[in-house]
Design brief:
The complex is a heterotrimer. By secondary structure, chain A is mainly alpha-helical. Chain A contains 13 helices and 6 strands. Chain A has one domain (2-349): ABC transporter involved in vitamin B12 uptake, BtuC (Orthogonal Bundle), CATH 1.10.3470. Helices cover 65% and strands 6% of the residues of chain A. In chain A, the strands form 3 sheets. A two-stranded antiparallel sheet of chain A has the order 1-2. Chain A has a two-stranded antiparallel sheet with strand order 3-6. In chain A, strands 4-5 form a two-stranded antiparallel ribbon. In chain A, strand 1 and strand 2 (110-114) form a beta hairpin. In chain B, the strands form 2 sheets. Chain B has a 6-stranded mixed β-sheet with strand order 6-7-8-3-9-10, sandwiched between helices. Chain B has a 4-stranded antiparallel β-sheet with strand order 2-1-4-5, with helices on one face. Chain B has 2 domains: 14-94 and 185-269, Rossmann fold, CATH 3.40.50.300; 107-182, no CATH class. A two-stranded antiparallel ribbon of chain C has the order 1-2. The chains are: A mainly alpha, B alpha/beta, C mainly alpha. The A-C interface holds A 59, 61, 137-138, 140-145, 147-149, 151-153, 155-156, 159-160, 162-163, 277-278, 281, 284-285, 288, 317, 319-320, 322-327, 330-331, 334 and C 37, 83, 87, 90-94, 96-98, 100-105, 107-109, 221, 225, 228, 232, 261, 263-264, 266-267, 270-271, 273-274, 277-278, 281, 295-296.
């Protein structure tokens, strides 16, 4: 019974995702699927960050950095031509291990690059490693210092991709090839793969939600919530708070990196704006609006706001809208907008002490 | 009722010291908070730590629990030197505590608070938890069962689903006690457990502490309520200005001239 | 490196160093009064410069600068009164998010009003090529303006906090807000005043810097992160140390061009920030035990 209660929302979500696809195909509005796919990938980052912020209580103003590490490493490995290094021992080794692929670029020139799968794994490994190394000192900090340190990390990543010629400087990396997950299952922005990519993206969200819902309802999840509320008492109960915070940070970085990798292959490229501080702030905003410690709230708000933003509803006021939402929610509904009394059946039934 | 493994019947452990404090020093800046404090706590006994405010009792607790490293000296728990080790590490060795200013986890139910107490007795890691593996599910069921049993033992099972921080003060103290006991500790540190309780609650607490000792758990407590201390303690240590000035059975402490002077004020004041 | 080039880097380092110090002192004034780090601090500098540039065609330069400082000060007061004043004991996280949101809103408003173009005030004396010879080296008079104005502001502030009753009351608020309230000090008004003061010095610095660094709607966040680096380097809340730390960061950044391309300059400042946070979060000149007592 308990398991049914836990997984029922996931089943409802799977049905909704399917229903939306059928609806768009029936009404001839399949073009919405592209934006819904992109929205799902941002959602993947957001739910990972939600566990870090809402449950473990650690603010990160640099998560766009991990998204960018995933996207950029994968993009760079799958696009940079290694033909010139063909006789290099290391490259020969990679070639013999079937990790490289020869293909043609858009002008028909031969190109030797890393295959998408090894590139993907390398990108995840890079994000995990960097999260681990940076996380040890960063997570010792609290409050303003934690905010500034994560912000600083984000700025450094942004500046590196902006300044590094390997990462295409201000232009970013384009012509990133499609990513064939399995035969017949390809992450690509190509028109003919649209429906399939919509399902790939939302399947990733479902898997992500499955993992995180299990996590927060478990022994380590309980310990995380205890760290958030009373770190000293958590230590006294035997919780290694430093280790738990670090593991959560690394997991949320992995979610961000996977999102970055898939979205980069879907879009066929990545630019420095994905690493910008504004993006990081936007993710934090969405989680704050969703109510911090609410995975479904964060996912719901992420889907709504990112979809509207991608549809261009906010026009050139996009950043201003997110800034305004951030300020208003924090002023009037610091527990998230779902906590507002207007959502309850009757204001007279509101708890006095609430 | 679920079976909970408490250490051993009290008689068997009584001879060996479970906790030994040797020449412990701690200073903050230039101020010496503890100077050369030494004493032992024998297995299966109740030892009380008393002294006026500022005597160094809380500092001593923080040193034992690993919240602070000592400036010098040794703390031996179960034949292992634990001074300077991390608090979570010491907790895993079988030491549990309660806090003077109650520290329950906000946002967690009473039952979940007690379940946290079993953290040091369980193993499920992030991977097993995220995949919800069968062994993670089994362990979670076990944690829940034993924690609920602990609530029953303290007669607060009806509060299981309530948010712990919203409970009445006396109930919160009981939840803290349940959380500490859920860890099946060998040594239980109680930091002013009677503070803020009325006389009926204090009497219940005295029964509970004696009952806990009968389960084979050794207890070290800091307390200001002298009648409670005299009633339940096997031995008492008196601290004043960071120094141990007396140690002995309650009757001896009650008649110790120096202790009387501290508590009643010296005549030349 | 030629002496000429050395001196050029040196004066650039000093100039930027003072700017960072002023931003850091702005952080400190608000932090001391409220325990809040105001992430919109860099926006005050931008607003001062941009407002003065807009007013300059209609009035003489000194008047335009004074008006710009007054307008920014009023905005600082409004920000505090509308968004901060009525919050009852807000958490650090909430204040971080609110001030970040405010910095975005101010920036977007500036984008709406002034667009993306880079502007600047004219040089106060002479032009971009005029120079004064000091001990054999050529220095732009504007550099002297920056150093002079910033030095006057720092001195005036420290005298204000030490000698005047109002200044002492503000320091009392910082030490213990509840005790200050009980002594009959209106802490809320002092907090408003702290926002006005940091807005004013930020705006003044924004004006005097404008001919050299130029002004643009999005200059705030970069300044804020460097100002914060300086504030931490000097020890949060310690304004005199911030000047030393500011000059240090300005010089390090300026001379880093010798070994690294300019596009990496911000990475250096940010790396210094991370290093200080990791190794000496109480600052180069701060006291570790005292810092441990503060809430961050």
């Amino acid at each position: 019974m308990r398991r049914l209660k836990r997984y029922l929302p996931l089943a409802v979500m799977a049905l909704t995702v399917t229903a939306v696809q059928l609806l768009t195909s029936y009404t001839g509005t399949a073009y919405y699927l592209t934006q819904l796919t992109i929205t799902a990938y941002y959602g993947l980052l957001i739910i990972g960050l939600c566990v870090l912020m809402g449950y473990a209580g650690q603010l990160s103003l640099g998560h766009a950095g991990f998204f960018a590490i995933g996207g950029y490493v994968s993009a760079a490995l799958t696009t940079h031509d290694l033909t010139a290094y063909r006789n290099n021992f290391f490259i020969t080794l990679l070639n013999h291990a079937h990790l490289l692929i020869s293909r043609q670029d858009i002008y028909g020139e031969p190109l030797l690059t890393v295959k998408a799968w090894p590139a993907c794994l390398a990108a995840i490994a890079a994000a995990l490693l960097i999260a681990f190394i940076i996380g040890i000192p960063v997570l010792k900090l609290k409050g303003h210092y934690l905010a500034m340190a994560t912000l600083g990390f984000g700025i450094i990543i942004f500046r590196i991709v902006m300044a590094g010629s390997y990462f295409g400087e201000a232009d970013g990396i384009s012509d990133v090839p499609a990513f064939t997950l399995l035969p017949g299952l390809t992450v690509s922005g190509d028109f003919s793969y649209r429906v399939q990519n919509y399902y790939i993206a939302w399947a990733l969200i479902l898997i992500g939600m499955f993992l995180l819902i299990n996590l927060i309802n478990s022994r380590p999840g309980r310990a995380l919530r205890a760290i958030h509320g009373s770190p000293e008492a958590a230590e006294a109960a035997g919780v290694n708070t430093a280790r738990y915070k670090l593991l959560t940070f690394v997991i949320s970085a992995a979610f961000a990196a996977v999102a970055g990798i898939f979205l980069t292959h879907f879009n066929g490229g990545i630019g420095p704006s994905e690493a910008s501080i504004m993006k990081s702030v936007r993710y934090v905003a969405i989680i704050a609006i969703g109510g911090m410690a609410s995975l479904w709230g964060a996912l719901g708000m992420g889907v709504i706001l990112n979809f509207l933003s991608l549809r261009g509803v906010f026009g050139s006021y996009d950043d201003a809208v997110f800034g305004a939402i951030l300020v208003l929610v924090m002023l009037f509904a610091p527990q998230g907008i779902l906590s507002l009394s207007i959502w309850r059946k009757s204001i007279f039934r509101r708890r006095r002490d609430g | 009722m679920a079976k909970i493994n408490f250490p051993a019947p009290p008689g068997r452990l009584r001879k060996m010291p479970l906790l030994s404090i040797k020449d412990l020093n701690r200073s903050f800046g230039g101020i010496q908070a503890l100077s050369d404090v030494s004493f032992k706590v024998s297995g299966g006994t109740i030892k009380a730590l008393i002294g006026p405010n500022g005597a160094g009792k809380t500092t001593l607790f923080n040193l034992i629990c690993g919240n602070l490293p000592p400036s010098s000296g040794r703390i031996i728990f179960k034949d292992q030197a634990i001074e300077g080790r991390a608090a979570h590490h010491i907790a895993r060795l079988g030491l549990a505590r309660t806090f003077q200013n109650i520290k329950l986890y906000p946002g967690l139910s009473t039952l979940e608070n007690v379940m946290l107490g079993r953290h040091s007795r369980s193993h499920t890691g992030f991977m097993a938890a995220m995949l919800n593996l069968p062994r993670a599910r089994r362990e979670e069921a076990d944690i829940k069962e034993k924690s609920y049993a602990m609530l029953q033992m303290l007669n607060i099972a009806d509060l299981a689903a309530k948010e712990a921080v919203s409970l009445a003060f006396g109930q919160q103290r009981a939840v803290e006690m349940a959380r500490a006991l859920a860890a099946e500790p060998e040594l239980l540190l109680l930091d002013e457990p009677a503070a803020g309780l009325n006389i009926y609650e204090t009497a219940e607490l005295a029964d509970l502490i004696t009952q806990v000792r009968e389960m084979g758990i050794t207890i070290l407590l800091v307390e200001h309520d002298m009648s409670l201390v005299m009633k339940i303690s096997d031995e008492i240590v008196v601290l004043n200005f960071g120094r141990k000035i007396a140690e002995g059975v309650p009757a001896a402490i009650q008649n110790n001239q120096e202790v009387i002077k501290i508590y009643l004020g010296s005549e030349d004041d | 490196m030629s002496t000429e080039l050395f001196f050029q880097y040196f004066s650039a380092g000093i100039t930027y160093g003072f700017l960072y110090a002023i931003v850091a002192i702005g952080f400190n004034i608000i932090y001391n009064a409220t325990g809040i780090i105001n992430f919109a601090q860099g926006e005050f500098v931008m607003l001062g410069g941009m407002t003065a540039i807009s007013l300059y065609p209609f009035m003489p330069l000194p008047l335009a600068i004074i008006a710009a400082v007054i307008i920014t000060t009023i905005i600082g007061a409004l920000v505090e009164m509308i968004f901060i004043r009525w919050l009852d004991n807000p958490s650090v996280l909430r204040m971080i998010i609110i001030t970040i949101g405010l910095s975005i809103l101010i920036r977007e408003a500036a984008l709406f009003i002034w667009g993306e173009s880079v502007r600047s005030l004219p040089y106060f004396n002479g032009s971009s090529i005029s120079s004064i010879n000091i001990m054999g080296a050529n220095v732009s008079p504007q550099v002297l303006w920056v150093i002079g104005v910033c030095a006057v502001m720092v001195t005036a502030l420290s005298l204000f906090f030490k000698l005047t009753t109002l200044g002492r009351e503000m320091r009392a608020c910082a030490a213990n807000r509840l005790a200050a309230t009980l002594c009959g000090i209106n802490t809320r008004n002092r907090i408003t005043l702290s926002f006005m003061l940091s807005a004013a010095i930020g705006a003044a610095a924004g004006c005097v810097m404008s001919p050299i660094t130029y002004s643009q709607y999005d200059m705030g966040p970069g300044l804020a992160i460097k100002g914060f680096t300086v504030a931490i380097l000097g020890g949060l809340g310690n304004s005199m140390a911030a000047v030393a730390a500011g000059l240090l960061l300005g010089l390090v950044e300026s001379f880093s061009i010798v070994i690294l391309p300019q596009s990496y300059q911000e990475i250096i400042a940010t790396s210094i920030l991370l290093l200080v946070l990791f190794i000496r979060p109480h600052g180069l000149f701060g006291n570790k035990e005292a810092a441990a007592l503060k809430e961050f």
